[in-house]
From TrEMBL:
Biological process per Gene Ontology, one example term: positive regulation of fat cell differentiation
Family matches, as Gene3D superfamilies: YVTN repeat-like/Quinoprotein amine dehydrogenase, Zinc/RING finger domain, C3HC4 (zinc finger)
Cellular component terms (Gene Ontology): early endosome
Top-level taxon: Eukaryota
Recorded GO MF terms: zinc ion binding
The entry's keywords: Endosome, Membrane, Metal-binding, Repeat, Transmembrane, Transmembrane helix, WD repeat, Zinc, Zinc-finger
UniProt keyword Protease present: no
FYVE-type domain span: 263-334
Residue windows of the WD repeats: 177-210, 220-254, 344-377
Gene name for this UniProt entry: WDFY2
PANTHER family listed in its UniProt record: LD41958P, WD REPEAT AND FYVE DOMAIN-CONTAINING PROTEIN 2
Protein known as: WD repeat and FYVE domain containing 2
């Protein structure tokens, strides 16, 4: 795998390779690629780390590069103005196991990190001292931070998202919410609209309305494999998502979307009243064989297969692919309701990481095929 951060004039990447015997070994290298006058990117720095790199964060204002490693250590470097030299700045003994996410917050001078030891920590970037620690219930796989409210958003392998209020030396639990059936694989925070996007191994994306105060959760279904990355373009109100099947989806979030209904419970079809197969009493009384239960994705009613034989897209509810709907809902869905709110693109490789640079409108993807691709997104993100 290669994870990469991209900016207008340079690319930073670190490499992890797997050999043919399926035992992990690592090049332990950080590479910086500078954009030359020819328009091509050429390597500028090739730095070897003491252990395998697992995650990284870069702040372009301070040129501070934070690298998380497999041994639980976070190493920080300051890049020179010409990006031809990196100087060690700080080392944090942050975790007992692999660092999963590292995030540098310039406004607070904090380094936030999570690890396989299920600890979420934050350190002072000036002194290197640990300021606080919070124990999570599962291995954390996603982390975002809101500077204005000092809220940390933590997504873990149980599918739960936890919101913490951070202080200088302590934190308090604000709330937890869970909408995914798989582990959280990506988080993206929009501080303007105050919404949080979470992607999961269950192929879905959920938009959580944090600032609205109503607890609204909007589902987006547009991937066939686990979601690997999320980026938000605030100037156009578009969400960019990618998955391990190579799909890149551009979501129009400047539309009024609807929440998906909760699935209703019933012992019989809520349309034709035929009993479901566990409703022995009604089966005996009516002398009929029980049917399998399904649910209409538009109204949430429990229906049988005969009453929900039709399929339709419902883009405003996040269903860009055809899903099961009952007969009455299928008749109520117009051609205007079926108008897509997302565009689909094939990256031609299994994406493991992506980074979007909004000032240039460029997207960088790295794949399991060890290839890094740079995309001009201006024709579709505009």
């Amino acid at each position: 795998k290669r994870k990469v951060i991209f900016f207008a004039e340079f690319i930073i990447c670190y490499c992890i390779l797997v050999n043919t015997s399926l035992t992990w070994w690592c090049l332990r290298t950080i590479r910086i690629w500078l954009k030359r006058d020819s328009g091509q990117y050429w390597p500028s720095i090739y730095h070897t780390m003491p252990d395998s790199c697992s995650c990284m964060s870069f702040n372009p204002e301070t040129r501070r590069l934070s690298m998380g490693m497999e041994n639980g250590t976070i190493s920080e470097f300051i890049l020179s103005e010409d990006y031809n030299k990196m100087t060690p700045a700080q080392t944090y003994q942050a975790h007992q196991g692999r660092v999963t996410v590292v995030l540098f917050v310039l406004e607070m001078e904090w380094v936030l990190s999570t690890g396989q030891d299920k600890n979420f920590t934050w350190h002072c970037s000036e002194s290197g001292t640990q300021l606080g620690l919070y124990r999570t219930t599962a291995w954390v796989s996603g982390l975002q931070f809101d500077v204005e409210t000092r809220h940390a958003f933590v997504g873990d392998y149980s599918g739960q998202v936890t919101i913490l209020k951070l202080e200088l030396d302590s934190c308090s639990l604000v709330t937890t919410f869970k909408g995914h059936t798989g582990n959280v694989t990506a988080l993206c925070w929009d501080p303007v609209q105050r919404v949080l996007f979470s992607g999961s191994a269950d192929h879905s994306i959920i938009m959580w309305d944090i600032g609205g105060g109503k607890g609204t959760a909007i589902e987006l279904q547009g991937h066939n494999e686990k979601v690997q990355g999320l980026c938000y373009a605030p100037h156009t109100r578009q969400l960019i998502s990618c998955s391990s099947d190579g799909g890149i989806v551009i979501w129009n979030m400047d539309v009024t979307r609807q929440e998906t209904p909760e699935w209703l419970d019933s012992d019989s079809c809520q349309k034709c009243e035929q009993p479901f197969f566990w409703n022995f009493k009604q089966m005996w009384d009516s002398k009929k064989i029980g049917l399998r239960q399904h649910h209409c994705r538009k109204c949430g009613q429990a229906v049988c297969g005969k009453c929900s034989a039709k399929r339709s897209t419902i883009p405003l509810m996040g269903f860009e692919f055809e899903v099961r709907v009952c007969d009455s809902c299928h008749e109520s869905i117009t051609d205007e309701d079926r108008a897509p709110t997302a565009t689909f693109h094939d990256s031609k490789h299994s994406i493991v990481y992506m980074h979007y640079e909004p000032t240039m409108g460029w997207l960088l993807t790295s794949g399991a095929d060890k290839v890094v691709k740079l995309w001009d997104m201006t024709p579709v993100v505009s």
